[in-house]
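Data availability excerpt. The first of two example chains:
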Amino acid sequence: MNLLGIDPGRKGALAILDSDTLQVVTHDMPASTPELHDLIAALPEVRVCILEQIYAGPQMSRTSVGAMFESFGVLKGALTWRSIPVQTVRPNIWKAALNVPADKNAARRRASEFFPDCADQWKLAKFDGRAEAAMLAWYGLSFAKRAAA
């Protein structure tokens, strides 16, 4: 069974977790809508997608907020088109459940604890989105187990 974790930020990523082998493969967030659609179209069958909920802070400009929510909508639309069930989760919820620190470097180290054989995918600081997407997929195991029961 495959689970999909998505860190939806501009520097985010998508991670496919094979729940049988506990191996994860990450993809950086595509830069354009057509590239995103191509990536979503090429995914294997996915049981559930755990998508990190985005939020707008008071310091953000209206333009930034609009672009962020537009991208989030495009992403959700692509997942719906592929009939991939989506569960959104706030960052504080999944990070607390998996004991993931807010610090991006510490988060990469935590992901390496879950996926030691896959840690080379987020060895550089700029790939923290890959690590978070992988952990979101891991978090999705709880949803998949409940759905199977």
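And the second chain:
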Amino acid sequence: MNDLKITGIDVTLCETRVKGNFADSTRNVETIGFAVVDVSTDQGLHGIGVTYHEVGGEAIRDFIKYAIEPKMIGRSPFETEVLYEENFHYMRGVGRKGLAFCAYSAVDIALWDLKGKALGMPLFRLLGGTNPEVPIYASGGWTSYSTEELVAEAKMMVSKGYKKIKLKVGVEGGNNPDEDVRRVAAVREAIGPDIGFMLDANNVWRAATAIQFANKIREYNIEFFEEPVFADDIPGLAEFKRGTDIPLATGEHEYTRYGVRDLFLNHAVDILQCDATRVGGYTEMLRIMALSQAFNKAFAPHGMEHMHMHLVAAAPNGVYLEKLFMFDEVVKSVYLNAPEPVNGIMTIPEKPGLGLELNMDYIKECKGR
């Protein structure tokens, strides 16, 4: 199997309309979905990878078809380092961040899936991990919810066995921090003192406001505060860290190890949340994981738990996965029998590669839309 050759790449856009009123501090969520990549080989093996299809999925699909696929035909999926470097420089004028890098990320993940399948190994074991059980926290709590709805969802998460939950702050576009304080207090009272409690502001505040808010809610034992300021405002993130002792989580909007390096050098992160479906796939994420270990920071990737479970299981500093409840429907549609968390633990299947199988009936439906 080591002489596998890539013969083609298929991309399918799968999406669903959001059912309910989902809005965070800066954005209304209308549709969610995946751009699903299927890399075929001359020996019948297929590798799958995924990135987001919310805004710009059509551009991702076309970029893979016209820019990336021609560079892959005839190459071996084991060439992940060489292929990454070639494609990085090929698309560097348009692709160091954004949709082009999302596109390459999905393809790279599919190559790693192929490597695991060719070797007959789950990726977490191929990467050096031994424990298939990975902690995972529940994530939701939209700012568009009333306080009663927020509390009800938090209780639901705990009732499902999650030991840690994350909710959003920044109501009214971030213009009413005092109401956020009241909502945080209500949730903490409802879930009790023993449940891990994290917050996500989705980039809404300037550093001074974020620091004021953080210091008002520190009594509620917040495990981390995510993106209190705009993700690209590295000085603002650093200012936040200086102004409060609540750990700072960020990184989901970074692309490549260079952005991550700058977060570390500027003392602008405690818990790193990079997303393999954006930063360059497993190839770049492994470099980022090494950086996070060198700077002695926790690694807790953003969303996409089925793409990230192998990485967290293999990382000495991997702390947990994130389950975004809003993706439940599309996850259950795209995959056949994908693992689900039980009592806050995701158990990785002992199957080669990612250990995932596409629901081809659903994929065919997506193609026909």
